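User: Just a sanity check before I run the rest of the batch. Below are the structure tokens for the first item. I only need the designed sequence back.
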């Protein structure tokens, strides 16, 4: 069994007729009875389909069945996702360690970092179960949004915990790091895993071209404030204080515009062009090599989905708070740079569930679904999450801006060019995936040795305490 292979088996005859069985009878063929009501519709498993629920997502049950639902959650959607559930014992241990041994900063950080893996995985799985019960396009958008909740929680907690703007460099690095992890690591793994047993995979231009265009717009919007600062920094025509204030104003105005573009993108998907996406995703669903297994799996009820989402989000929020509280100590006492913390470590755990979902879809030859998750998550980070944290910072009096480090800005722009080039021909193979992952590894190694930002020599604003960030008084790794 492959790492991303689906669990459970299905009768051979279901493999031939699964599409027909999951499709409800047309309205004009249903008989009316009892005052105009319709005869009940049954799905492929013989379950009566609840009104408003898609047949493929019907569980055949109502309410909450504790033992059965726990078994479904533990089984998860793939072997890799199931493997994440072995980390659940870390969840109570991480919470207990925070309160029982508050001075064990390294242990608290490590335990809460690991504990975010199963909780984020549960958010992803419960979101996937909800998505099965609603129309495809709305389901994909909902999955992407739920997967990004972990990221939003981390950003907001980092911003709220920031004193004298000391954690803003971590947030800025995490924004770009999240995008890089999606574009290079996750997309690269999708290409690599999907191309492992196929010569090449194909995807539709409706997904790739819109995604590529939005990435360029997002890159333009996110990098303009940095370019503005870099062009005018050191100029005798403007003081640094005035320059930073103008960059902050530009960042806030840009954030409002980026939010408008995000809602235009959502409207485009859900209202004006939803039929195009429906057709593409429906065709992708028919190409799913494990669809016959998915159809026979036991599924959560809607009530169980919402219950587990609440539990998982509560745990994720707790771990995010405990994790963020230790970043200051890890940066200062353990020599881990803020750039590496934000660009590599934080994005890896916050996007873990989404990455597993997309890679699993690529393994099943559903490249349009995989791309919709990867590019959708990337676009949401760039056009919603990043502007949102700037606006939240504006509301609570924090100088959160889009003035990124020049090194990170260049890396971000080059990543968009690399991925855009790979998406242009609407096909992928394992070599392109391997190259994307290798580029990400190069960035990770370089970021580990990236020097500390110093006041007057960086795009990052000098904090009120007289230094840049929490680590400027401490040498980074490899700096002596």
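Assistant: Here's the designed sequence for the first item:
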């Amino acid at each position: 069994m492959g790492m991303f292979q689906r669990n459970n088996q299905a009768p051979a005859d279901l493999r031939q007729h699964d599409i027909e069985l999951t499709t409800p009878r047309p309205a004009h063929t249903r008989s009316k009875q009892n005052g105009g009501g319709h005869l009940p519709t049954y799905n492929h498993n013989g379950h009566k389909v609840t009104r408003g629920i898609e047949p493929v997502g019907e569980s055949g049950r109502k309410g909450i069945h504790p033992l059965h639902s726990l078994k479904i959650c533990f089984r998860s959607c793939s072997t890799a996702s199931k493997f994440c559930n072995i980390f659940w014992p870390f969840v109570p241990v991480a919470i207990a360690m925070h309160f029982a041994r508050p001075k064990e900063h390294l242990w608290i950080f490590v335990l809460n970092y690991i504990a975010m893996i199963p909780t984020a995985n549960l958010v992803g799985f419960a979101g996937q179960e909800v998505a099965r019960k609603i129309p495809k396009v709305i389901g994909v958008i909902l999955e992407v949004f739920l997967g990004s909740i972990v990221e939003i929680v981390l950003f907001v907690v980092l911003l709220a915990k920031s004193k004298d703007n000391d954690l803003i460099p971590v947030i800025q690095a995490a924004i770009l790091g999240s995008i890089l992890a999606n574009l290079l690591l996750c997309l690269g793994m999708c290409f690599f895993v999907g191309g492992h047993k196929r010569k090449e995979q194909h995807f539709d231009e409706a997904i790739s071209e819109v995604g590529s265009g939005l990435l360029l717009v997002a890159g333009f919007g996110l990098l303009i404030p940095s370019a503005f600062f870099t062009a005018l920094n050191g100029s005798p025509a403007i003081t640094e204080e005035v320059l930073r204030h103008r960059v902050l104003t530009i960042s806030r105005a840009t954030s409002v515009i980026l939010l408008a573009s995000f809602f235009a993108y959502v409207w485009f998907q859900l209202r004006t062009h939803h039929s195009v996406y429906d057709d593409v995703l429906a065709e992708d669903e028919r190409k799913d090599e494990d669809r016959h297994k998915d159809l026979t799996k036991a599924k959560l009820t809607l009530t169980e989905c919402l219950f587990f989402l609440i539990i998982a989000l509560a745990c994720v929020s707790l771990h995010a708070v405990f994790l963020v509280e230790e970043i200051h100590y890890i940066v200062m006492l353990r020599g881990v740079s803020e750039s590496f913390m934000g660009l590599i470590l934080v994005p890896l755990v916050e996007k873990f569930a989404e990455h597993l979902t997309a890679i699993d879809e690529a393994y099943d030859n559903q490249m349009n679904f995989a791309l919709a998750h990867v590019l959708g998550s990337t676009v949401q980070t760039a056009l919603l999450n990043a502007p949102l944290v700037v606006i939240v910072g504006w509301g609570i009096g924090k100088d959160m801006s889009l003035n990124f480090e020049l090194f990170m800005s260049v890396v971000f722009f080059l990543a968009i060019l690399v991925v855009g080039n790979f998406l242009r021909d609407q096909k992928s193979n394992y070599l392109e995936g391997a190259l994307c992952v290798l580029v990400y590894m190069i960035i990770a190694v370089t970021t580990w040795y990236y020097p500390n930002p110093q006041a007057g020599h960086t795009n990052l604003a000098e904090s009120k305490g007289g230094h840049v960030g929490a680590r400027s008084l401490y040498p980074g790794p490899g700096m002596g």
